[in-house]
Amino acid sequence: MSKKKGEKKAKSGKKKELAALSAADLAPAITQAARSVRTALSRSISDSGLYAGQDGVILALSEDDGQTPGQLAARLGVKAPTMTRTIGRMEAQGFVERRADGHDGRLTKVHLTENGLKSVESIGQSVADCGAMAVRGFSDKEVRTLLKLLRAVEHNLQPEADED
Amino acid sequence: MSKKKGEKKAKSGKKKELAALSAADLAPAITQAARSVRTALSRSISDSGLYAGQDGVILALSEDDGQTPGQLAARLGVKAPTMTRTIGRMEAQGFVERRADGHDGRLTKVHLTENGLKSVESIGQSVADCGAMAVRGFSDKEVRTLLKLLRAVEHNLQPEADED
DNA sequence: CTTCTCGCCCTTTTTCTTGCTCATCGGCCC
DNA sequence: GGGCCGATGAGCAAGAAAAAGGGCGAGAAG
């Protein structure tokens, strides 16, 4: 697998190399952008008493209450163990609560508590505010383009959903 | 699905609200996309023996060897303590080594070891490969647009660089 | 037809890492 | 000597992978 491209600047004269260079820059770019978003969002929602990554659980539950950890994990794009621990912490914080499903003993339904329900709009506002700050100066078309490309990237990187 | 989005507050009915909704979707989208990139990259470089986040150190050092932790942190967009710990672990793994600067006692220069130097091309290949997979099906123009928007987002979220 | 066992699914636990914030220590410049 | 900058340490949390626990259902056997 020794694909010695040698020096990066040793271009073979193919335009594909230029695209490859851009693609190589994409991973760091998206990582840094996500870190910035994460940090900004973390500060926005810290006054609500929760941490980055918990906001998605609140919002997902506000749309469909009583989801299982697996559903939440799939919806938010994280692994099940991560969701389990996040739920456990949010339960300790009093935002959500776990209820055993009567029909399937292996299922656990996650419900918003009153406290969690009250924080929904605050969280939504913080997320929207953070997003608005991120796209400050963008045209509406640019925002939609960014959104579309982001989702395409996410779709391209799904290991299972490789329909190519 | 009962998506009662307009239920939280009575909006004023301006077209700006539509943009706000897109902006609200941006934070989750970029977070999930970054998670996918991080996971894919982590698997790509795991056979090189290092973890996600360490690749940037290797590549940055391959371009300019002997940088200080602070320079690396600024370059990779992480905080100094994070870089310190990452460097410490990579030093234990044998990829980099710390050397005290003779002129300034408070500075620490980070250098690539022979082992680290050998992994440079493999890492660069993994990053490029991951980026290429992420933008599969994208036109060259779309890739550049995504890159540009990503950097603009990052710039918008810098607390210090608030030139507004 | 009943019952038991095996396999699968979902959840949870554990261990590793990155990343941030706050706090500390040490060396340099004024 | 005092302030400042840079590096480091401690504590908190997310996220991933590997593995364990428990329940449900289907299929085989009586």
**CATH fold name of the domain at 51-134 in chain A, please?**
Arc Repressor Mutant, subunit A
Task: Tell me what the CATH architecture of the domain at 51-134 in chain A is.
Answer: Orthogonal Bundle
Task: Determine the CATH superfamily of the domain at 51-134 in chain A.
Answer: Winged helix-like DNA-binding domain superfamily/Winged helix DNA-binding domain
Q: What oligomerization state is this entry in?
A: homodimer
Number of strands of chain A: 2
- Count of helical stretches of chain A: 7
Keywords (chains A, B): DNA-binding, Transcription, Transcription regulation
Pfam family, one (chains A, B): MarR_2
Domain HTH marR-type (chains A, B): 23-155
Protein name (chains A, B): DNA-binding MarR family transcriptional regulator
Provide a quick synopsis of the model.
Chain A has about 160 residues and is mostly helical.
Produce the secondary structure layout.
2 copies of one chain form a homodimer.
Chain A: H1 15-46, H2 55-63, H3 69-76, H4 80-93, E1 96-100, E2 108-112, H5 114-118, H6 120-134, H7 140-156
Antiparallel strand pairs in A: 1-2
Helix pairs in contact in A: 1-6, 2-6, 3-4
The structure holds a DNA duplex (30 and 30 nucleotides).
